[in-house]
């Protein structure tokens, strides 16, 4: 079974890194993964999206999907195209610190995580995407915290190694922020729902 996940935000919010960390963490746990990142015309401030397909069996098509089961939204600026791809009964995890748009919650499971505030309180506002993906991992059960931390270490280039510790703290804090939230990606026997 497959889980389709779309991350969206503005350039500079860590969308591509967050998607890469989720993809690697799932791979570390023996899942099949396909990942596609798309970027707007600018490095910072333009739209940036990533789509992941994570499965317990072979994936035969690329991660260009017409519908997604999960959306992780770092900013409201590019929310509408993602909203239009949500399956009925999808789950949306919102960075409530900066998200400033209306959401028609009918038929959706919405979870608000103040990711930017949590990361800023930890001393590194740039780690907000790590907070959001960890909260998502906790509420969905998609991957374990240890896998996220290891995947983050593998994803950070050597010239940015000074950020590993703050990103690990952000992942820990995000996992805690996901306590009490639940929308399982996998059933008890490990297959997607």
The major pleated sheet works out as: 6 strands, mixed
Contiguous helical run count? 6
Largest sheet: spatial strand order: 2-3-1-4-5-6
In percent, how much strand structure appears in the residues? 15-25%
Assembly type of the chains comes to single chain
The global form is: globular
Q: Which residues sit in consecutive blocks of at least 5 with pLDDT less than 50?
A: none
Order of helix and strand elements from N to C terminus: EHEEEHEEHHHH
Overall mean pLDDT stands at: 90
Strand tally is 6
Question: What keywords describe this structure?
Answer:
single chain; 193 residues; alpha/beta; six-stranded mixed β-sheet; 6 helices; 33% helix; 24% strand
Describe this structure in words.
- The chain is an alpha/beta fold and 193 residues long.
- It contains six helices and six strands; from the N terminus they run βαβββαββαααα.
- It has helices at residues 15-28, 79-83, 115-121, 128-140, 145-155, 164-177; strands spanning 2-10, 32-39, 47-55, 68-73, 86-95, 109-113.
- It has a six-stranded mixed β-sheet with strand order 2-3-1-4-5-6.
- The longest helix is centred in the first third of the chain and has 14 residues, at 15-28.
Secondary structure topology:
Layout: E1 2-10, H1 15-28, E2 32-39, E3 47-55, E4 68-73, H2 79-83, E5 86-95, E6 109-113, H3 115-121, H4 128-140, H5 145-155, H6 164-177
Parallel strand pairs: 1-4, 4-5, 5-6
Antiparallel strand pairs: 1-3, 2-3
């Amino acid at each position: 079974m497959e889980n389709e996940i779309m991350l969206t935000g503005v350039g500079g919010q860590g969308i591509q890194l967050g998607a890469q960390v989720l993809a690697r963490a799932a791979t570390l746990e023996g899942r099949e993964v396909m990942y596609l990142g798309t970027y707007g015309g600018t490095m910072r401030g333009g739209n940036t999206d990533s789509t992941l397909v994570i499965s317990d069996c072979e994936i035969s098509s690329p991660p260009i999907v017409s519908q997604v089961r999960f959306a992780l939204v770092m900013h409201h600026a590019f929310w509408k195209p993602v909203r239009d791809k949500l399956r009925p009964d999808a789950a949306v995890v919102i960075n409530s610190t900066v998200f400033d748009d209306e959401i028609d919650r009918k038929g959706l499971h919405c979870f608000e995580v103040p990711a930017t505030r949590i990361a800023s309180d930890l001393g590194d506002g740039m780690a907000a995407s790590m907070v959001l993906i960890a909260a998502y991992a906790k509420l969905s059960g998609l991957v374990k915290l240890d896998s996220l931390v290891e995947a983050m270490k593998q994803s950070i280039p050597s010239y940015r190694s000074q950020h590993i510790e703050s990103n690990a703290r952000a992942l820990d804090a995000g996992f805690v922020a996901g306590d009490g939230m639940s929308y399982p990606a996998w059933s008890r026997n490990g297959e997607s729902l």
